[in-house]
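[agent] plan:
  1. take the single chain provided in the ticket
  2. run structure prediction with default settings
  3. attach structure tokens to the ticket
  4. add a short note for the reviewer (M.T.)
[agent] executing step 1
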Amino acid sequence: MTQLPPPSVGGDGAEDVPVAAFDDAHLQPYAKHPRRAEIVVGACLFVGFLGFVAYGATYWVGGQTQVEAVTLGLGFFGFGFAMSAWGKYLMPKGPFTEDRHPVEGTEPEVQALAAAVSERGKMVFRRRGVLGGLLGLAGAAMGVVLAFPLLRSLGPQPMKALDTTDWKPGAYLVDINARRITVDDLEVGGALTVFPEGFVGSAIDQTMLIRPSSVNIVTKPGRETWGPQGYLAYSKVCTHAGCPVGLYMEQTQQLLCPCHQSLFDVLDGAQQVFGPAPRPLPQLPLYIDSLGYLRAQAPYDQPIGPGFWERS
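[agent] step 2 finished; step 3 output follows
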């Protein structure tokens, strides 16, 4: 076991704790080849830094989760391995022992001990400037990218984003293939997902077009012209949790949300009759133009989707 140098005696007879020298045997690193260990640690820190940066860039542009997992794992591996290797191979190997001294020390002893500890800490990093810089760089990159899920995933508040859609007066109803819908496209009992022309695939615009009858349908007072020749259109975004209401049950004339089993009566303005949905599905007023195409009279009669904190 390595011993610290024996305490020296000051001019006043008090025992002083010696200031450690850089070439003391117990302060030498554990590695047999410190330079090689420094290179390995530095390389691992750099790899960790690159991994964190790659993860941050991939996450920020909305990349694949597999790539995010690989890059984040590479960053943690490089950073963690470097810190473990640094602690084992580049720190003073010790062990450090010394004779027991009286608990109460003199003022010169306290000052000498403070100087020894200070010098010892400085000597550990005196020849590790590059490693210290890489450590700070990798640590900063890790801290920044780990905040990305909090900063980016939350996104902006919905504000008024759900209050309006792309349905405008005169908008053509089109299917997923952008084909305009005509009055002859659905048989009685049929259903189809439609969008406003130019916005195929839009989540907020998706609409269930159904035909419960072949004659005009009035679902609520004031909606006398909204259901020409038995065509009805309701928002496909459930008012409970925003799931797509994609199932039409012809026999009961109801729309079903498969997520939480909310039921809506299509002949009563999509009034909710079962499940957790708090309000009816918004209805889109329709008309048939002179060429037989189904078009929107106006936007939805109310905001689509579930309630949120900006909506009264």
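[agent] step 4 note for reviewer: Confidence is low (pLDDT under 50) at residues 7-15.
[agent] ticket updated
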